[in-house]
Amino acid sequence: MRVGKLLVLSMLGAAGQAAAHFDHDLGSHEVLAADRPEAWAMNYMAVSSLMTGFGLPDGLGAWQWQLAAELGHIPHLSERQRRVGFNGFKLEDLNKSPVFGRVRLQLGLPHGLQLDLGFTPPLEIDGAQPRDLFAVAIGKTVWRGEHLALAFRAHGQHGQVRGDITCPEELAIGYDRELNPFGCQAPSEDRVDLNHYGAAGLLGGAWRDWRWHAEWGVLRTEPEVQVDAQVFDVRDRSHLVARGWLRHYAFGIGREHGRWGWRAEVLHAPLDVRRADGRDNDALTSFRLQLRYRPGE
């Protein structure tokens, strides 16, 4: 248990004051319960990067393509929400970036299929940087009526974010019982894998020049955290794994302007968490925007 390791670290920190040359690695592998605070935070970050459909497949003919750029709002987490380490005891630096972005290539395939390829550029924000973060989806409109259409899509994501999450740079100021109770000696180099896959259904329609869509789906999340932090005189190399199934919902609108188009949607994903004061549903609700460009024939 990581709570037991917290006591070990504290004792090592006290010993480190008397033995400055004491230095070794301390690592563990732990598969977390789905409602642990650490698992909640990992799933929160994973679902905030979800590549939704932003509407039904666009009716691209075989080998026709279009480009899109999108941004999703990541809500600011309170101190209570950020207290996730050691089963809800330690504050973590989870407010790295207020947005998540990607670029997307949408390609029409034979038989009415549409392939979406997404990539998040490796831009560093506040010490956090995406690395090799790719997403892929394939969808198809299966029924189209006079005013409504129904589609299904399958999707997945693989990649990671690296940053100073467990020991942020501003805390790496030497041992201070008040400001730095966990003894961070340097900015950590933590790795968070944001892997997931799932399936979704989409319902959409049009009203005058406006388009609307609703999406609902299930998501298998497989996030992992590899801690790499120098605390007291110990290098913490803990490895945390979370596995779970989540639901997500999205509703949005958009318009076309010649070769250009835009979409706006709200993404909602219920997330259960068990904290010291009881069990709660602490959901992610994110506002998102997408800009599209389709070249001429």
What features would you describe in this structure?
35% of the residues are buried. By secondary structure, the protein is mainly beta. It starts with a helix and ends with a strand. The chain is elongated and about 65 Å long. It is 12% helix and 51% strand.
What is the CA–CA distance across the termini?
A: 60 Å
- The spatial strand order of the largest sheet comes to 3-6-7-8-9-11-12-17-18-21
Strand content: over 45%
Low-confidence stretches: 1-22
The shape, in one word, is: elongated
Number of alpha- plus pi-helical segments: 4
Number of strands: 21
What is the mean pLDDT? 90
Structural class, from secondary structure content?
mainly beta
Helix content estimate: 10-25%
Q: If you compute it from the alpha carbons, what radius of gyration comes out, rounded to the nearest whole angstrom? A: 22 Å
**H and E string:** HEEHEHEHEEEEEEEEEEEEEEEEE
Short description:
By secondary structure, the protein is mainly β. It has helices spanning 2-18, 37-48, 79-82, 85-88; strands spanning 24-26, 29-31, 65-73, 83-84, 90-91, 99-108, 113-120, 129-144, 148-163, 190-193, 196-207, 210-221, 224-226, 229-231, 234-236, 239-241, 244-257, 260-269, 272-275, 278-281, 284-293. The strands form 3 sheets. A 10-stranded antiparallel barrel has the order 3-6-7-8-9-11-12-17-18-21. A 3-stranded mixed β-sheet has the order 1-15-14, covered by helices on one side.
